[in-house]
Amino acid sequence: MTRKQHTAAVELSAKQEELAQRVYQRLKGRMGEELLGMVRMMMSKPNHEIFGPGEFELRQKLNAVGATILEESANERAKSKKGVLR
Q: Which of 20, 27, 68, 74 is the most exposed place for a label (fewest CB within 10 A)?
């Protein structure tokens, strides 16, 4: 599945899209830096550490990114004072 197909799979209301864009704008700079750091980390690993130790370190960092997205999404919903938007 391409990135365009993956993002197109989620249909949002206008309000949901507005909130999504706000969260995205706040996160994109920080996440860009995180992504570059993860790529650099993987490039620094010797071949025998890419899978195994490097893979687990990368997964840990990706989980932290997901937690940040979750937190920011929850905070944005709280600001909207409408809870889950449909």
A: 74
Residue 46 is part of which domain span?
A: 15-78
Q: For residue range 48-82, what is the model confidence (pLDDT) as tens digits?
A: 999 999 999 999 999 999 999 999 999 988 887 76
Residues in contact with 45: Cβ distance below 8 Å, sequence separation at least 6, in sequence order:
53, 54
**Amino acid code (one letter) for 10:** V
What does the alpha-carbon distance between residue 19 and residue 81 come to, in Å, rounded to a whole number? 12
Q: Which of 43, 86, 36, 22 has its CA nearest to residue 65?
A: 36
In this structure, the number of other CB atoms found within 10 A of the CB of residue 49 comes to 13
| pTM for the full predicted model | 0.71
